[in-house]
Amino acid sequence: MLAGKVALVTGSTSGIGLEVIRALAGAGANVAMHGLGDPAKLTDMCHKIASDAGVKAIYAPADLKKPAEIRSMVKHTADTFGSKLDILVNNAGIQFVSPVVDFPEDKWDDVIAVCLSSAFHTSKAALPYMMAGGWGRIINTGSMHALVASPYKSAYNAAKHGILGFTKTLALEVAQKNITCNAICPGVCLTDLVKNQVEGLAKARGVPPETVIDNELLAFQPTKRFVDARDIAALVLHLCGPNSSSFTGASHSIDGGWTAR
């Protein structure tokens, strides 16, 4: 379905991003993996993805708090695959849990930089390649916290709400260029980020992690189970597929019914 396409997925060394990059590779796209970890081990992961799917895969590191490194990552990806970049999935995210009155200012800046500003910088750098190729798909990971809020997550809520505004604006700007921009809004998925969030909330509340999962994380998710990252990857594939050209400027919830309330 995506043979010959080139995809860059930020935050794709684990969790949702890793499932997304595997799905894109499985559909025939050459892929660039981004994220934290041992470069040698991540390069080995890329080799396995490439071997399993019969595509090319590279590791493209960058500190998403640094715009210059983001631009270098995008250029490196495009240069590796013949000055080509068709699909950008802005998935990287970090979290910090604290009441506003105690929220460290540097943590606020970091969350906004990684969860919101990096999507602007990657998209700006990727758009010229998409315009040159006459086709593009930009997908931003929003979270249900792009639609509703939870206490103690002010920076994350602000960043994810901002992602929706950015998504809509960019979609309008490129609407006649055969480029779409959408946001996906997952519910709670048991990623490393969420595991760290559980620990933070448990500490803040003075309760066991299991209590946080049952009484807080899944309390508003009617299915009472974590969203499967493979379902999220399937949604990304749909938004990149052959019948996706009219899906743009929209938020797509995949949250176990969280925002149906």
From TrEMBL:
<comment type="pathway">
    <text>Lipid metabolism; fatty acid biosynthesis.</text>
</comment>
<dbReference type="GO" id="GO:0032787">
    <property type="term" value="P:monocarboxylic acid metabolic process"/>
</dbReference>
<dbReference type="GO" id="GO:0004316">
    <property type="term" value="F:3-oxoacyl-[acyl-carrier-protein] reductase (NADPH) activity"/>
</dbReference>
<protein>
    <recommendedName>
        <fullName>3-oxoacyl-[acyl-carrier-protein] reductase</fullName>
        <ecNumber>1.1.1.100</ecNumber>
    </recommendedName>
</protein>
<dbReference type="Pfam" id="PF00106">
    <property type="entry name" value="adh_short"/>
</dbReference>
<dbReference type="InterPro" id="IPR011294">
    <property type="entry name" value="3-OHbutyrate_DH"/>
</dbReference>
<comment type="similarity">
    <text>Belongs to the short-chain dehydrogenases/reductases (SDR) family.</text>
</comment>
<dbReference type="InterPro" id="IPR020904">
    <property type="entry name" value="Sc_DH/Rdtase_CS"/>
</dbReference>
<dbReference type="InterPro" id="IPR036291">
    <property type="entry name" value="NAD(P)-bd_dom_sf"/>
</dbReference>
<dbReference type="InterPro" id="IPR002347">
    <property type="entry name" value="SDR_fam"/>
</dbReference>
<dbReference type="InterPro" id="IPR050259">
    <property type="entry name" value="SDR"/>
</dbReference>
<dbReference type="GO" id="GO:0003858">
    <property type="term" value="F:3-hydroxybutyrate dehydrogenase activity"/>
</dbReference>
